[in-house]
């Protein structure tokens, strides 16, 4: 009885194709190679950004303010509070009494600090010489009606 064998073409190709495939195949001698399961995401330039925070000066020098008016919105202490202004917890400087905004610098340690203050009359300058001129206000009380006339714009008469 004759047994059927594989064709001679297959027999002759088997050893050579097996070795060449194993050398160039990712599953060859080294075993399986892992590939990424997710594709790499692209980058977004500038990430779309966020809206501006509207920081900066809101009232300028010699501009009239009333209590509660915001003078400066800032991150950190670029400006420090002077007389008749206070600083909020987000470093916002606001007026505590009516008057006119004044900016000035004072020496602090080895540098100069920028300050913001409020004065009662337009011509006053800061820092105030309290020894010669006295205190600017008595216990923080101010005649508000005196300043109401300055803040209103006069109406032209017809």
From TrEMBL:
| Alphabetical keyword list | Ribonucleoprotein, Ribosomal protein
- Ribonucleoprotein among the record's keywords? yes
Pfam families in UniProt: Ribosomal_L27 (PF01016)
Q: What superkingdom does the record give?
A: Eukaryota
Protein family: Belongs to the bacterial ribosomal protein bL27 family.
Q: Which NCBIfam families match?
A: L27
Stated name of the protein: Large ribosomal subunit protein bL27m
Species in which this protein is naturally found: Hohenbuehelia grisea
């Amino acid at each position: 009885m004759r047994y059927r064998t594989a064709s001679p073409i297959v027999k002759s190709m088997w050893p050579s194709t097996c070795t060449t495939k194993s050398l160039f195949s990712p599953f060859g001698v080294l075993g399986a190679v892992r590939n990424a399961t997710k594709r790499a995401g692209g980058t977004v330039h500038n990430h779309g950004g966020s809206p501006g925070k509207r920081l900066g000066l809101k009232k300028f020098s010699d501009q009239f303010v009333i209590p509660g008016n915001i003078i400066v919105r800032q991150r950190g202490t670029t400006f420090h509070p002077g007389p008749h202004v206070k600083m909020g917890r987000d470093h916002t400087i606001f007026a505590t009494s009516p008057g006119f905004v004044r900016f000035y610098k004072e020496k602090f340690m080895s540098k100069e600090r920028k300050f913001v203050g409020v004065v009662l009359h337009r011509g006053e300058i800061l820092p105030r010489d309290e020894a010669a001129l006295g205190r600017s206000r008595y216990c923080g009380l101010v005649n508000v009606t005196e300043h109401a006339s300055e803040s209103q714009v006069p109406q032209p008469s017809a």
